[in-house]
């Protein structure tokens, strides 16, 4: 299998890094020297640690040991593999899709232990840079996808990508902008059971929300000591819903900052951008997930903006936008509610 190596340029200091191969079973991180730039030149904070695409696991469990321990505020550069764990390459076709093994699906880079994080706390993860690798794939896998019982066909397409590419040409007339993001982000759940990464849960996991891209800050509830944060399942682009079951699945380079938030508690992930605040809700049905996302937004409005329950409920009806993030990661679906910061008067 062709190994995916790509050179990428950090906009801070224009320092070049390669996603290098690591010896099998390696569990150490490389600390990256600080770039010699002025604050005015920096698009992202200085990277303190680098994790390679081989420092991965593909389950969520409190029993998975951390590969890195950091203080709150650490800036980490993480390289991630594509969702297939390199079972595909630029020359793959339908015969490779037929041979796809779901066992290695979703290699995620981590876990990262945050000093001082305890159950009941919150981890704040800011995505400073998200850069796509050299290639990606999109497929319809028989038996998987929102319309699996209606459209049972199979399909695979390989796309040439790259850090500087802005869109892909779907056909002669249709082109799709690239907006890379990690499909899986999450902390360890409060169990030693090895849970599949496929569905989203309260710990985050496979949320597949295309809004969780560069510039977004995501908040995760902490369930175990250290949090144990992992990230991966890179998507070069995806629509809300991910209805055929896959995005353009691709390796990524991600620079994120991880911070510990005390004196705050949430039940499921929440996130914000410069423009809005959002809550998430997972459940086996869209109805249940939508109710949870709405209830979490009401709770946020009460705690952060001092509204009564009735005022918050009314505001969600007047200005809240429910969105379907994904419908294919059985047994759970994910719905979000967005509320404009301009409406909230915090811009």
Description:
The protein is mainly beta and 347 residues long. Helices cover 12% and strands 36% of the residues. The protein has four helices and 25 strands. A ten-stranded mixed beta sheet has the order 3-4-8-21-10-19-22-23-25-24. Strands 5, 7, 9, 15, 17, 18 and 20 form a seven-stranded mixed beta sheet that branches. A hairpin with a 6-residue loop joins β1 and β2 (16-18). α2 (286-305) crosses α3 (309-319).
How would you describe this structure in keywords?
347 residues; mainly beta; ten-stranded mixed sheet; 4 helices; 25 strands; disordered N terminus
Describe the main β-sheet briefly.
10 strands, mixed
Please, how many helices? 4
Mean pLDDT across every amino acid position? 90
- The unreliable regions are 1-28, 30-42
Q: SS-based structural class?
A: mainly beta
Distance between the termini: 49 Å
Helicity range of the residues?
10-25%
Task: Explain the layout of strands and helices.
Elements: E1 7-9, E2 16-18, E3 30-31, E4 49-51, E5 56-57, E6 59-60, E7 68-70, E8 74-80, H1 94-98, E9 108-114, E10 122-132, E11 135-140, E12 155-160, E13 167-169, E14 175-177, E15 181-186, E16 195-196, E17 200-201, E18 204-206, E19 217-221, E20 227-235, E21 252-261, E22 270-272, E23 276-283, H2 286-305, H3 309-319, E24 320-326, E25 333-340, H4 341-344
Parallel strand pairs: 4-8, 7-9
Antiparallel strand pairs: 1-2, 3-4, 5-9, 6-16, 8-21, 9-20, 10-19, 10-21, 11-12, 13-14, 15-18, 15-20, 17-18, 19-22, 22-23, 23-25, 24-25
Helix pairs in contact: 2-3
């Amino acid at each position: 299998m062709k190994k995916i190596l790509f050179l990428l340029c950090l906009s801070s200091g224009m320092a070049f890094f390669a996603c290098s191969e690591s010896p099998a079973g390696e569990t150490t991180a490389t600390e990256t020297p600080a770039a010699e730039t002025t604050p005015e030149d920096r698009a992202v904070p200085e990277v303190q640690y680098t994790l390679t695409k081989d420092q991965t696991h593909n389950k969520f469990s409190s029993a998975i040991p951390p590969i890195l321990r950091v203080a709150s505020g650490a800036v980490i550069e993480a390289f991630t593999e594509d969702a297939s764990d390199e079972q595909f390459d630029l020359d793959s076709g339908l015969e490779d899709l037929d041979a796809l093994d779901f066992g290695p699906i979703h290699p995620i880079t981590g876990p990262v232990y945050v000093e001082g994080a305890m159950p009941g706390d919150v981890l704040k993860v800011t995505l400073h840079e998200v850069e796509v690798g050299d290639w990606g794939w999109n497929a319809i896998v028989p038996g998987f996808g929102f319309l699996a019982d209606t459209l049972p066909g199979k399909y695979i397409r390989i796309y040439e990508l790259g850090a500087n590419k802005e869109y892909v040409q779907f056909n002669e007339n249709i082109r799709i902008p690239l907006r890379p993001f990690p499909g899986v982000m999450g902390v360890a759940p409060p169990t030693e059971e090895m849970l599949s990464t496929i569905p989203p849960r309260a710990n985050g996991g496979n949320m597949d929300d295309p809004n969780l891209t560069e510039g977004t800050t995501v908040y995760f509830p902490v369930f175990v000591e250290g949090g144990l944060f992992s990230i991966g399942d890179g998507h070069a682009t995806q629509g809300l819903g991910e209805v055929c079951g896959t995005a353009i699945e691709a390796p990524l380079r991600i620079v994120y900052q991880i911070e510990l938030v005390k004196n705050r508690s949430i039940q499921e992930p929440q996130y914000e951008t410069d423009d809005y605040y959002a809550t998430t809700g997972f459940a086996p049905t869209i109805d249940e997930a939508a109710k949870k996302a709405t209830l979490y937004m009401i709770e946020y409005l009460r705690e952060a903006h001092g509204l009564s329950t009735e005022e918050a409920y009314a505001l969600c009806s007047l200005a809240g936008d429910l969105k379907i993030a994904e419908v294919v990661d059985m047994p759970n679906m994910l719905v979000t509610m967005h509320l404009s910061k301009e409406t909230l008067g915090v811009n």
